[in-house]
Design brief:
Elements: H1 3-19, E1 31-34, H2 40-49, E2 59-66, E3 69-75, E4 80-84, H3 85-90, E5 94-95, E6 98-99, E7 101-106, H4 114-122, H5 142-149, E8 162-163, H6 175-183, E9 193-194, H7 197-200, E10 206-211
Antiparallel strand pairs: 1-2, 1-7, 2-3, 3-4, 5-6, 7-10, 8-9
Helix pairs in contact: 4-5
């Protein structure tokens, strides 16, 4: 092994251990990207957002630290709420007993926006979950809460939106989504502007700072 390869090998080990270090401390404004336990909704989300090169995260929440207690502000069923972080992690799918949760942090140039973002999110606590993924109602799904909370000084979201799709890899609407939107008497919002956790996790305004799992 050449000296250069040896140092690259050491660097990889160091970065991996840093991301899994047991003394990691969450900060207010961190985003927790989660792969939820298998369920009809989580499996349906993963099916239409999966990417062979990354984990299809199905949920995301904002960390809020208060008086040494750590919470996650999340838009989940049935409403936007503030959840103790241990409960949030418990709800995750697991790899070798570790929750499949990634922690992302705003890059330094965006961190001044965190206090207002957290305040924006907390104002929505108690608002209903958005079962039909409609950007124009007073209900919220998980990544929509993040998108609307993190805005620049002009009030514009710092995360990009995208055209939502509810089609699987073969181009069909899974039966779950057909029944889901029929239940709520709504059209499938295919092609409407929106967000999803898997794409949000890849935003260039974020940096990966920790993983609760190894892969």
């Amino acid at each position: 092994m050449t000296i250069l390869k040896y140092f690259i090998w050491l660097l990889v080990i160091f970065l991996t251990e840093s991301l899994l270090a047991g003394d990691f401390t969450l900060q207010t404004g961190d985003l927790l990207f989660q792969l939820g336990k298998s369920s009809g909704l989580n499996d349906a989300i993963a099916e239409v957002t999966a990417n062979k090169d990354s984990i299809a995260y199905t949920h995301v929440g904002i960390v809020f630290v208060e008086n040494d207690s750590v919470f996650v502000i999340e838009a989940t069923i049935p409403e936007v709420c503030q959840t103790p972080v241990d409960s949030f992690l418990y709800q995750s799918a697991k790899i070798d007993g570790r929750p499949i949760v990634m922690v992302a942090r705003l890059k330094p140039e965006y961190r001044k926006l965190i206090p207002q973002a957290v305040e924006n999110a907390r104002k929505k606590i108690g608002k209903p979950y958005d079962y039909v993924y409609d950007p124009d109602n007073e209900a919220y799904y998980c990544s929509e809460l993040i998108y609307l909370s993190f805005c620049d000084e002009e009030g514009k979201p710092i995360f990009p939106s995208l055209q939502m799709t509810f089609r699987d890899a073969a181009g069909y609407f899974p039966e779950y989504w057909i029944k889901h939107f029929k239940k709520y008497q709504a059209e499938i919002p295919e092609g409407r502007e929106g967000t999803n956790p898997a794409e949000l996790a890849k935003s260039d305004v974020l940096e990966l700072v920790y993983r609760y799992f190894s892969r």
